[in-house]
Amino acid sequence: MSNRAVCREASHAGSWYSASGSQLNAQLEGWLSQAQSTIRPARAIIAPRRVFILGPSHHVPLSRCALSPADIYRTPLYDLRIDQKVYADLWKTGLFERMTLQTDEDEHSIEMHLPYTAKAMESHKDEFSIVPVLVGALSESKEQEYGKLLSKYLADPSNLFIISSDFCHWGQRFRYTYYDESQGEIYRSIEHLDKMGMGIIEQLDPMSFTNYLKKYRNTICGRHPIGVLLNAVAELRKSGLEMNFTFLNYAQSSECRNWQDSSVSYAAGALIVH
Questions:
Q1: pLDDT tens across 250-265, in order?
Q2: Beta carbons of 178 and 218 less than 8 angstroms apart
Q3: pTM of the predicted model, to two decimals?
Q4: What domains are there in the chain, each with its CATH number?
Q5: Mean pLDDT, rounded, for 22-32
Q6: DSSP character string of 21-89
């Protein structure tokens, strides 16, 4: 039996982002320097020991959540180590399946957060690990089940959670062309639809978010990871833990004005524990 570490390659480097460590580092420094804080400055920062990254499965059908077979996730900056102790604890629950390395490397939802994670944590790079979880097309009851399971990790201030998701994928190539003409041009309708969903997420009510998705069918690719997070928060609020979620930024890849156009929306927000 080999003791060699299993490494997941940075399979989307060179296409989705730069494969050059120096170039990627410069890009990240530039982008991060432009970020403006829209909430009051932190009075203290505790560097997380573990970073959970929940991403949707785009390439394989999953009805549950899956764990990686890898020990190491490579990035052009430096390698990130998977927390095998947490992985073992999750595996013991019987709720997870194991994805193949090929499935892991085909998927981009988790990988796209790795360069940012590595850059943000570079001064602590030997002191933290990651917990990547690929989230399938979960039923409402399964979102509740995984939310309850992960709530104890969310409650631990040494853990950080990243939820990977775009917002509306609009256009004929996405087979989604919802349009509320009362909002004006198509891109305004998309923004209204997205911000309706964002407002519901900020309420931290998983059932309201589920009902919104049922009504409008908004093509939010990370709707199930978001659902897991909302259910984890709901579980913690039962014990009196106060939290609030605030969206900080919103953008669209292009402004759709006719039926031949297409766009993908992006939103970023933060969960604050009081």
A1: 999 999 999 999 999 9
A2: yes
A3: 0.91
A4: 44-163 (3.40.830.10), 167-273 (3.40.830.10)
A5: 88
A6: HHHHHHHHHHHHHH----SPPPS-----SEEEEEEE-SSS--SSEEE-S-SEE--SS--EEB-HHHHHH
